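Holo model, adenosine-5'-triphosphate. Inputs:
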Amino acid sequence: MDVSFENAEAKFGPRVALKCLSLRLSERRIGIIGLNGSGKSTFSRMINGLVLPSSGRVVTNGHETVSQGTHVRAAVGYVFQNPSNQIVLPLIKDDIALGPQSRGLNKQVTDKAVRTVLERVGITHLAERRAHELSGGEVQLAALASVLVTSPDIVIMDEPTNQLDLRNRKLVERTIHELAENVIVVSHDLALVSGFDRVLMFHDGELVADGSAAETIARYRTIVA
Ligand SMILES: Nc1ncnc2c1ncn2[C@@H]1O[C@H](COP(=O)(O)OP(=O)(O)OP(=O)(O)O)[C@@H](O)[C@H]1O
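Output:
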């Protein structure tokens, strides 16, 4: 992964959601923490071009997010805060098949890719299930499978353990830790990011801490204390 923010700022109307920021991300596992409304999701959405900079630029794996959005989105898979919204087809296996199908892969190759990713995420038993029947943890894993099947270099997950019970949280946490892809996780779950290579903390739209997980989490505790 190679992500650069070059004097990048994000505004929604007059409101600055992310203040001017320059940094480079190359670590394999990056956590993003901070209070509600601090700019975490905005920052993570700028990496895949969902939010475009109002000034400056963001370059993801060599592609500028404004002018090369298609390349950026191919490189970055995004699991949203409410992943049930990103599962669009009733059956989980059909939804996961959408990615390979949209790349023009034939049925045989698509079916194999779907089987492989279901096994990888440990949800083969959910293939024929309907999204609205699944638990929160199962939905997270199904959305993750839909993203992984497109072979992204970077996977961003926004609040992946939010509202999960302890068992599902552990399941999702273990799955994230086993991913071979580069991972960026936005979370209020400090335990989840505590083993990551680098953790950033935002406060009021500003990057206020950037370092090891232990350093940044310690700083976060001083802010919420
Ligand atoms: N599409 C939008 N339009 C207008 N304002 C927005 C939009 N998205 C975010 N904001 C504002 O930008 C600021 C940062 O929001 P953001 O979602 O990045 O925060 P966050 O740290 O991810 O919050 P949370 O932990 O609650 O998810 C907030 O004040 C929010 O209201």
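The helical segments are 40-47, 69-75, 92-102, 107-121, 136-148, 166-178, 190-193, 213-224. DSSP finds eight helices and ten strands in the chain.
Archived with the compound record.
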